TrEMBL record:
Highest taxon in the source lineage: Eukaryota
Signal sequence region: 1-18
Organism: Sitophilus oryzae
Chain segments annotated as transmembrane: none
Keyword Secreted on entry: yes
Protein name as annotated: Gamma-interferon-inducible lysosomal thiol reductase-like
Record keywords: Glycoprotein, Secreted, Signal
GO MF, one annotated term: oxidoreductase activity, acting on a sulfur group of donors, disulfide as acceptor
InterPro entries per UniProt: Interferon-induced_GILT
Family label: Belongs to the GILT family.
Cellular component GO terms, alphabetical: extracellular region
Length: 206
């Protein structure tokens, strides 16, 4: 199950001269959680611009599985479920590069950052600007159908396996370390650099 979702959300990068050392980073987040959105905008997105080459990023929007009816529920209401569905449906193609995944995440969270609901028009705009080859009709069908529910249930199972107790929940190299998470929430680039055996120049200037 983890392999399935990782295939959806993660793209490995290999340079022409050989494999680049990577830090595996998994973010479990809620799409309308203020702390999750703050981390995405203040740390992950700008940090990725600096050190994305040295990262394998897995994005896991969290929604709770509702055992009573087989659906999902979201702590911050229906719009949170909508955004989560929109994200997994837009990014389910394994051919989408990691850079575009992070860019789409940032774009699709903009409405939350602006303290408003995210709408169909917002997601369409993000598709147009970030993922122009992805059809809105295809995404909308996924959002409204069982596919998005099943994708989010898979993510829920992964979050449970990781021992998630809150969001944002940060996992580096398949392990959750509270001290490292605290560091990353204040300086994501520094946290990544601390895990690289041969830190690049950006780590020295950060």
């Amino acid at each position: 199950m983890f392999k399935l979702v990782a295939t959806i959300f993660m793209c490995l990068y290999v340079s022409s001269s050989g494999a680049v050392e990577k830090v595996n980073f998994t973010l479990i987040y809620e799409t309308r959680c203020p702390y999750s959105v703050e981390f995405i905008f203040d740390q992950l997105y700008p940090g990725y611009q600096k050190i994305g080459e040295y990262l394998n990023v897995t994005l896991l929007p969290y929604a709770r599985e509702n055992e009573a009816d087989g659906g999902i529920t979201c702590q911050h209401g229906d719009n949170e479920c909508y955004i989560s569905r929109a994200q997994v449906c837009s990014l389910k193609d394994s051919a989408i590069t990691q850079e575009l995944q992070v860019e789409f995440l940032h774009c699709s969270e903009q409405g939350v950052y602006d303290s408003r609901n995210v709408t169909d028009a917002d997601i369409q705009q993000c598709l147009t600007s970030v993922l122009p080859n992805i059809s809105w009709d295809t995404v909308k069908t996924c959002i409204e159908g069982e596919e998005s529910t099943n994708l989010l249930k898979d993510i829920y199972d992964i979050a449970v396996a990781y021992g998630r107790t809150y969001v944002p929940y940060l996992i580096f190299n398949e392990q959750h370390d509270q001290d490292l998470e605290n560091k990353a929430r204040g300086d994501f680039v520094a946290a990544v650099c601390s895990l690289l055996t041969s830190p690049p120049a950006v780590c020295q200037s950060n």
